[in-house]
Specification:
Elements (H helix, E strand, L loop, with lengths): L4 H5 L9 H13 L6 H9 L5 H16 L4 E4 L8 H18 L5 E6 L3 H6 L4 E3 L1 H5 L10
Parallel strand pairs: 1-2, 2-3
């Protein structure tokens, strides 16, 4: 089911007094896209359900990149099971972010003592190996 117009408008500058008109126009577009003016059709096409999250994602990346000196991405693998798919997905996300930002993000921080081999195989450039270097953490009173 397509999103409602208020859901779509929440991610756009169009709202307020024009919302009622736009809602009617959007409903008409959903019934028959060719029945609305080509300019509006192009606008509504750009708001297709599959593109709204993608567009929001791009806006977040661009906004953060403008405020921070982003060097890469970091994630922890799942606590159970094979971490390889998660590490491969993070590498893919980093590669996509590089394309969107038109600059390199050289840091791919993933992998800990228990899963660093899978992280390295997926392209990790930074590992967290505290347990391997210092041993397990002492039990906290909450764990007892």
């Amino acid at each position: 089911m397509p999103p409602s117009l208020p859901e779509l408008l929440a991610s756009t500058p169009l709202s307020g007094a024009n919302a009622t008109y736009l809602e009617a126009l959007y409903e008409q577009y959903l019934l028959n896209p060719d029945s609305v003016d080509p300019a509006w059709r192009g606008y509504f096409d750009a708001l297709a359900p599959t593109t709204v999250p993608e567009r929001a994602h791009r806006q977040v990346i661009a906004g953060v990149a403008g405020l921070l000196d982003v060097r890469g991405l970091m994630a922890m693998g799942p606590s159970t099971g094979d971490p390889s798919p998660a590490f491969i997905e993070l590498r893919t996300l980093r590669d996509q972010a590089e394309q969107r930002l038109s600059r390199r993000l050289p840091v791919l921080s993933m992998g800990m003592t228990g899963d660093f081999e899978a992280a390295l195989a997926a392209g990790s450039t930074m590992l967290r190996l505290g347990t391997a270097l210092f041993g397990p953490r002492p039990a906290s009173p909450a764990d007892e």
